[in-house]
Design a protein that fits this description.
Largest sheet: 6 strands, parallel
Number of domains: 2
Bound molecules: manganese (II) ion
CATH architecture of the largest domain: Alpha-Beta Complex
Helix content: 25-40%
Distance between the termini: 35 Å
Number of helices: 12
Number of strands: 12
Strand content: 15-25%
Shape: globular
CATH topology of the largest domain: inorganic pyrophosphatase (n-terminal core)
């Protein structure tokens, strides 16, 4: 899988590695593990992300720093590698800079329908996570280069992108890789699980309680809708970043095939997170609104207002059932 990558990488010396906006465990885990690989093999490497790294991933940053770019940050690099995304526009400031500054761009990713024009594209839609792909880079090159910190970073990405090894993207190989990472890393699953999941604030739980009250079922209980509004954030002293994982609650209702969490951003529109636990393809669904993602998890914006967004997302979804 990494033959081309390994044969061409030594044509470069200064490499920028960028993870997607609104970062998650898989993009940060794979970014850190890739940067450490490049560093161990003699490349000068810098990691960039436009956004704040979620609080529950901060423990990973000492393994490799992730910086916020400014417009001059990118000039010094002769290669860029984008991780966990397959369209330049998912990578924030880099997309604008790159329009006027053509440089080779490679991707390592597992989302469907990649854009054209990447010099090297490791695009494996069936992979559970980008972290699983970075593990394969180490395996094809020198597995002994995975140290304890890299093992923790890769493990985190696999766990967060697979709902803790529950999704249908998980193969026997995924579980074997996860087991190897536990062995190499010398940590217990609960250490990572607690760092990632058991750090909710009381305010977040109150917000969840508000959001649960909004659950509505459509199409004979096959589509579940949940909303979060600015008033709820104000009443509980929270922000939209506190809604992480909320969509799994409506998705866990019996007979529900797909769930959508709608976050009302007022004039900016409505942010929709779509999840499926059936053969309903929420990537196709989200693309009708100009968004996208995976078959089982995708996102999109609606121009609003909230009531209109609910109506349209349900009517488009009903054609998919
Ligand atoms: Mn991913």
């Amino acid at each position: 899988m990494f033959e081309t990558f390994l044969s061409k990488i030594n044509n470069h010396s200064k490499i920028g590695v960028i993870s997607h906006v609104r970062p998650d465990g898989d993009c940060i885990g794979s970014q850190i593990a890739l940067c450490r690989w490049l560093q161990k093999n003699g490349y000068a490497v810098t990691a960039f992300n436009d956004d704040d790294i979620p609080e529950n991933l901060h423990w990973m940053l000492p393994f490799f720093p992730v910086k916020k770019p400014d417009e001059r940050s990118f000039n010094e690099f002769d290669l860029f590698i984008l991780v966990d995304g397959n369209a330049t526009h998912r990578f924030g400031a880099f997309a604008d800079w790159h329009e006027n500054n053509p440089r080779p761009v490679w991707i390592i990713d597992h989302h469907p329908n990649p854009d054209d024009g990447f010099e090297v594209a490791i695009s494996e839609v069936q992979a559970s996570s980008t972290c699983e792909l970075i593990y394969q880079l180490y395996e094809e090159h020198n597995i002994d280069q995975i140290d304890e910190e890299i093992a923790r970073a890769l493990y985190t990405g696999i766990i967060t992108d697979t709902g803790s090894l529950q999704f249908d993207s998980v193969t026997p190989e995924t579980v074997e890789i996860t087991a190897n990472l536990l062995r190499i890393g010398g940590f217990k699953p609960n250490e990572i699980a607690e760092a990632i999941y058991s750090n909710k604030t009381v305010a977040q739980i109150k917000l969840l309680s508000n959001a649960l009250e909004t659950i509505e079922l459509f199409e004979n209980h096959q589509i579940a809708i949940m909303c979060v509004t600015p008033e709820m954030l104000q009443n509980t002293g929270t922000t939209y970043s506190d809604c992480e994982g909320f969509v799994n609650y409506p998705l866990s209702i019996e007979n529900v095939k797909a769930a959508i969490l709608l976050k009302d951003h007022g004039d900016e529109g409505v942010r929709m997170s779509l999840r499926s636990r059936s053969n309903v393809d929420v990537n196709i669904w989200a693309r009708k609104f100009g968004g996208g993602g995976h078959k089982k998890a995708a996102g999109a914006w609606h121009k609003g207002p909230l009531k209109e967004a609910i109506k349209e997302v349900v009517s488009i979804g009903s054609n998919q059932l």
